[in-house]
Amino acid sequence: MSTRPPLSLKARAIGYLSRREHSRAELARKLAPHAESPEEVEQLLDALERENWLSNVRFVDSLVHRRAARYGAARVMQEAKTHQLGGEQLQALKERLADTELARARAVWQKRFGVAPESPEARAKQIRFMMARGFSRSVIGKVIAGQGDEPSDEWPGDD
Which part of the chain is the RecX third three-helical domain (predicted)? Predict the structure, then answer.
């Protein structure tokens, strides 16, 4: 039985990045226990960014690709904020998600329910499900009521 030498910090970082995109903050957190100092981690992250191994822009694209089809803008934004992205990146992500929110909500609703609620209990269940997925109240209202793209602040069935 042979024992392998421990991986270098750069080898660990590239291993993580080869599996999926990571934000700078996330990669720093994963590498910290294996580094001799925080400065060593920062120097490595700077080098990885210069060599284009690490990119928060690519990370945002990856996050949207992985999460947007199943979750609303609020939920994706909440996850993005945990990765300590810059303000400009967060704003661009918010705008990008807002553009497709209604279509994504319709797809999620159609897959899960597919039919309009027939009772107040069923309607409440659908609303709770969609809100837990991070969709906004106005978008949920449009989807459940089967409305078009016109803006509405009213909930379906509210008189």
Answer: 99-144
